[in-house]
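pasting Reverse transcriptase domain-containing protein for the record, 413 residues
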Amino acid sequence: DAHQGRNQTPWSRHQTSRFRLWLNSYQKSIRNAKSFFFASLIDSEKYRPTALFRVVNQLLNPSCLHPSDTCGSQSCDSFLDYFSKKVDLIRSDISSDHFTIGDENFGRDFSNHAILLDRFLPVSDASIEQVLRSLRPTTCIFDPCPSWLIKECSRDWVPLFSGIVNASLEEGYLPAALKRTAVCPLLKQASLDPGDLGSYRPIPNLPFLGKVIEKVVAGFLREHLDQFDFYDRFQSGFRPGHSTESALVKAVSDLLTSLDRGLVAFLIQLDLSSAFDTIDHGVLLHRLEHLLGSSGSVLSWFRSFLEGRSQVVRLGSSLSAPAEISCGVLQGSILSPMLFAIYLLLLGAIAERFGVGFHCYADDVQLYLAFPANSPGEASVLEKCLNEIRSWMASNWLRLNQKKTEVLLVGRD
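structre below
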């Protein structure tokens, strides 16, 4: 204060002045370093909209939406119980009386043809090193060492990782230690009640080595889908050359074309309740075998990947008791988006059979039908198609979220 300032010796005033000078220089260096770092990061991601949005969002909304780190293990168990029961309730609402695989009338069945994918090819050290460098350095509590350290010393780790990856692919087996998941609850929106468990979204964190194996398998699976053109042409999610933009452009183009022809159109936006979490493993394995021609160690590996998984909820240093995951695919895993797209492969065929426009991005499904304004009765086709889709979804353990389903009538004034 002022009194202390008057009592300072010339030497202490000199030291204080130097301290302030160095402090200002330090703070300026920090600001410049931050500015350079984020400018470089934004520039490097300017052609990747998803990554660019993530960077900008972190800068504009730096507040932490995680539950308090002071929560005890009881809160962890409460979160785990809520997340598990939520999926159980959705599946219990789906009538098992109508359950059927549902592949008989749609798609392509290769069960009587030569095996298309019965084993994985060996992976080279160069490919493993490329995978290690491409993965984000996210570390799971089950990892024995930080993933950033593995990436920094990737060349030294390559022989070990290569041996483990090739052994897993050859034997068709994923070790149980790599199927453990640490879930962190994340508040969906800052405006939601943090005391309500329903306000949180489970964010899974997986072991780094498991993600390396997934990345390799995803490469084989993507190559297989490309080679035999297994992609649903109406699906814009999780496939090369497609995005939310392609989904919007297709739907808007079809609707504008209908308006130019003097027609009106109904657009229905469907939403699924926790779609990734309710996927049935038996149905998915059936798709992989009979639609994609998987067999042998490949099918065994996918079965091992899906079954025997467990999860814990982590809040700070507290952990819940482990719980089994009996259905679903984790949204945080590398393979899950591709597996989900495979699970929905037959959905577009239903809409096509009714002559209804169809497009989707992941679990966001759009149905639209154009008809003359003086013939509203033709809209009943859309209702029949919707009922068929609802029935197919129920038979495949998926449930439409009616609260988020929206209907839009498109026409000219």
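The first helix runs from residue 2 to 7.
Residues 76-410 form one domain.
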